[in-house]
## 1
Amino acid sequence: MRKHHLSSADFSQLQFDNQFIKQLPADVETENYSRQVINSCYSFVNPRVVTAPQLVCYSPEMAQLLDLTEQDCNSPLFTQVFTGNALLAGMQPYALCYGGHQFGQWAGQLGDGRAINLGEVVNQQGQRFTLQLKGAGKTPYSRNADGLAVLRSSVREFLCSEAMHHLGIPTTRALSLTLTGEAVLRDMFYDGHAKHEAGAVVCRVAPSFSRFGSVQIFAARNDTVLLKQFLDYTIRTDFPHLGDPSVATYLTWFEEVCRRTAALIVHWQRVGFVHGVMNTDNMSLLGLTIDYGPYGWLENYDPNWTPNTTDGDLRRYCFGRQPKIAQWNLTQLANAIYPLVGRIKPLEEALQVYVTSFAQGWEKMMAEKLGFLSYQATTDAPLIDELLDCLTLTETDMTLFYRLLAHCDVSDLDKQASWFEILLPAYYQPQQLTGEIKARLAQWLRAYGQRLQQDNLSNAARQQRMNAVNPKFVLRNYLAQLAIDKADTGDFSMIEQLLDALRHPYAEQPQYEAFAQKRPDWAKNRAGCSMLSCSS
Ligand code: AMP
Ligand code: MG
């Protein structure tokens, strides 16, 4: 094979300690062909060698966490390694075996069909990270697909991972985005119009890439031995604070997964993120946002919106359903660990913890978005309900609305005209802001003003609180698409600019004002901006 192990003098700060493969059983077959992989948690497989690797972009913050310098990242070796052309000493590439429920149906074995883990790095601070290439070629889990990824979807994954991190939302990270120099055939809308696109690889980074489906696969196969082995490993490695694995620990572990998932979904609802494919293989056991595919950001607030055209009819994974879907997914995970627990009641109780923890987290989050000191059920529940109705009366940009609301001086009833002037940029059809719609909104703003009096914060103090939770910058769907359009012509400048702007999503950053504008009309029905598919 053309691959070579490079001496540890290169990137020697990357200390590999591959516990996952050390402690869990490997597929005995080492040939790389599509198959069912049983009695094992992963298969060894090498990334494929590509012709012309080229660095598009890297994340300086992620590099720093891995103790990599700017010089390291700009070296030819970096590009070779993170496109899959060279292995560093200590790397032992493998693909994970997992299953999952897709759109509500058990889909059997899925696995890393186009992701290859390079190994686990422990940084100077003792933090553990798995490095994973997405789009680096076929694995035993590729079924009849090609194991590759295109630039379009890779730009989206790279930028959104880092944007989520800077928003303070648990997520897998992205170290690098590279081009392979090879063309990949994709039928973007599965409508018979396949075309060649540029192949790309993202190096993803996370403490662990384990998913709900990683547990489910062993339960589905009635392999209780491996189920227990995998869960014990997960608890010891990723949840060491829970203590030694036991039936009691399985329950506290599951409860913690419920809490983490609740916290994650509260964050998504806070910023208007729609994952798009909340299948159980795309749910992280660590409560991270994982697998950026046909995700999108709410422009006008609409609980029924989903960016995923594949889900356009049923809208299973639309914005408003995300909390319920997470609960459904957790129920599948509970079913999967039931053989180890043997009792239903404590699992049901843990699922109830998800429900209450989500509800409380959501109320607190909404109170924060509105700048309240705390959530007061009697006043705030109806106020929030009415606001969410008001936001759907006429197309209202969610991100802009909350950001601008912080600037309204609602304490002064005489300033009503100024409220609307301030909020106007949030409206897609400002001419509709008349009559009943305007009256209802004015009434809500008055009630909001009264509610704020309870807390007695200054406008400046409230504004500061609100701006800390209501981002000014999110990866608007059309912005990602513009960056992709430019990247397709070989110009990566907008990727860099977006990466930079999204580093400080809560700051004003007037130099990036153009990235804080509502969706332009041309983007409303354009592919890639409002309509996406799983083709990536
Ligand atoms: P997703 O819903 O995109 O997370 O993908 C579901 C499953 O399909 C996972 O097992 C992926 O690894 C696999 N998959 C998606 N795209 C490809 C591809 N181009 N080649 C191989 N496997 C893929
Ligand atoms: Mg996936």
## 2
Amino acid sequence: MRVLVTGGAGYIGSHTVLKLLGQGYEVLVLDNYANSSPQALARVKILAQRGFDIREGDVCDAAFLNDVFADFRPDAVIHFAGLKAVGESNQEPLHYYKKNVSGSITLLECMQAHDCRQIVFSSSATVYGEAEYLPYDEAHPLQPTNPYGRTKLFVEEIIRDWAKSWPAASAVLLRYFNPVGADPSGLIGEDPRAIPNNLVPYIAQVAVGRLDHLNVFGDDYDTRDGTGERDYIHVEDLADAHLAAVRYAQDHKGCEAINIGTGHGTTVLELLAAFEEASGKKIAHQTVAKREGDVARSFASVSKAYDLLGWRAERDVADMCRSTWNWQSNNPFGYDG
Ligand code: WQD
């Protein structure tokens, strides 16, 4: 079976490509390297001990995309390619709508033109917005609070309409909670281009000495210790969920949105302590004001993922911290290190 992976050089994409190769899939990776490194794919080839096609380009480029589909004739697409920084999306909404929404429309048009019927889409729990109840289940109201989250919601709805209009189509929309961790080899991992927005890569860069200390965004939330609580999911579990979704899309038509998380929350201070334990490093930190737009608590209802995909998370926060530290300590400056 041939799988086209857009954004396959990225953090979650590279981990998913490695798993696809391990399961014998034929893979083509399409990436414009706007927020990723070709080095990640070189290392995936080493780990997989298998080759795969790589095409540098943009999903917004219809002519390029048609050439790729004509050459590779994919049976399925896993669509990671897109911009994903919440703060940046507030500054540059049109750029985000162009890349994330128009790019996805171009991809879907090309899929249908080449009779490629299955798509697994990289969505996000950000589509839920402020919690009306917890845990978030897939029926929770969809009320994203930033342009990035709205691009994810709009693409979900576009894919849903596309699948309705084409009875042969099948689509799985995976709503990720908080992806963290790395492959146990330490050869691939999360490598933010600029100062990390997200907690775990920020802590990892403090631990390795690239950043001075962590700023804890608020300590008077209504949580166990006052700091923000999130559902962190190991990137390997997340990659496994994509393979389960590809298998599901082979046997089912229509469109399903599915949460991918552990079903448990971890606070900032709990994660900090787990990282200190895993790395043996003291992480200097200070409490500062809350970050605008942050919610107090976010964690997933994960029963639908098990019922439909037969998937559940297997790795815990200690695994996430250990694997992150193994990656960061072996690659202090990421792929450009
Ligand atoms: C986690 C917790 C912060 C940084 C974001 C996106 C979401 C998704 C995942 C793409 C919060 C606290 C963080 C720091 C801190 N990305 N924190 N100091 O905000 O839950 O989700 O990433 O889909 O769309 O919104 O993740 O890692 O930024 O924050 O105290 O330097 O850590 O307040 O409680 P978040 P995060």
